[in-house]
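Minutes, methods subgroup
Present: GH (chair), OT, SY

1. OT presented the first of two proteins processed in the latest run. Sequence and structure tokens recorded below as shown on screen.
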Amino acid sequence: MDVDRIVEECYSRLPNGLKSKPWACLNHGCAILDTEDQLNAYIAAYGEMHIVKCRKAMQNFPFEDLVLSRNINGEISGVKSFEIYDWGCGQGLGSLVLMQMLRERKMFAGLHRVNLIEPSQASLSRAKNWVSQLADFSTDIRCVNRFIPANDCPTWDDIDCDTHIAIHICSNILDIREVGLKWLARTSSSIADKNIYICVGPQFGLGISRISDFHNYLGHPACFYDFAQYPLAYTSRTKHPFGIEAKCFTFDRDTVSDLHYVEQSQQMHIDEYQNGDECIKGILPDSVISAYHNLKEAVTNSSFELFLRPSIGVERPDFVLTSLSNGIVIVNICNDASRFAEEFDRVNAIKAALIDVYLKNLKISTIINTSSYNSIKVGLYFPYSSPTEIDNKCRIYFENLKKIKGNSQQKNPTSYLVKLF
């Protein structure tokens, strides 16, 4: 069972009418899935996001806490027994990602049981099928076909744990308003002596998130991973940006929780395809958001694809536009025209790093044909400066560059700039 292939297989099984926008039939990701088409559409739309977010959070998981013993060579010779609880598991992607990582680390022998909690019978059946394919014969799989209830509901008395360690996966479930965070905190924290939580969801820009509320119900324990970023990555098929908020922590049963905590989040559930603007408010500067909207409109009918704050090694330029026929454009925001030289040198350095690290074939071709270097262009966007001010700073910059490099190596300054709008 390869969790990465699941997304492609589900997409390939979709009717052609759903392939362009598989998220459109899912009530912003909140629908209770009943049909094969809905199940496949959900994985096609959101599966890659879930997998990337879970891996990002789980790479910091305290796997050493599961080690019972090591041999003389330092290899794991014994693993503590533990259970996985996948709350609102959907089709089981969170469990599958963790199980793959456990197997890679030779810790699978400790997995006593996987508990899948999900209101959709169709999703639950598929989750059980996929988890069974990855699990050992000795691993028990328990399915609980229920909604996570509201805060004032009693805890379930039929959800127990046969081990001292429970791993709780809360992947893209805590941001759903109908989920009782207090109920889940109270119920899950009493399951085992040691409870390890992996809480991940979409990044939400404004105020306290529901992930933070859940964390606060448990007394705000120290996190072994606490991370928020937008964008985290882009979907490989649609090139759609998505973010992450993750809080991962350990809670011992005898630790004092804070069930009198008053929730502060005003957050509604985020569909990262439909509510992308809600994800970036309060996270990115207004100048970047404004330029992003302008660029999106400018490239709507062009061959360019727009990426917001992508990672290029250690650098994160404000925008990258890519086109098979027109090359690559790297654009940074320059809020102050007096910093023209510094900002222009930086964006050029990003271009050089892109070629050196990721496009080595292009670097070789530039030796043969220097014009190849211009397949990657750079630009600065000035949200607060007049054209005259920009022209003056540009002229001074290139005049100084001309003195340093000489006439023979100096190109027309306009060839270094990209007209955006």
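2. SY then presented the second protein from the same run.
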Amino acid sequence: MKINPRTVARTIVLVLALINQILAIIGKDMIDITESDIYQLCTLAATVTTSLIAWWKNNSFTEAAKLADSYMKAIKEDGLPEEVEEDA
């Protein structure tokens, strides 16, 4: 099973941002910054941004999900197969 590198990168960034946010909430700083308010705002912005990107994108990890993605792409490009159109 081959996973798209961009899917892996988005997932890693999301996990790191969530861990960083959790550490900031419980008072543990991953990055030593003197201005804690700026740090927390930046962390929150990164968490929200990566969460929205990861949520918006279709991250297909399983072979079935990848097959469904290719089927969806084919339908968008070529339309429904004739046997499906007859059943509908």
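Chair's summary of item 2: The mean pLDDT is 76.
Next meeting: continue with the remaining queue.
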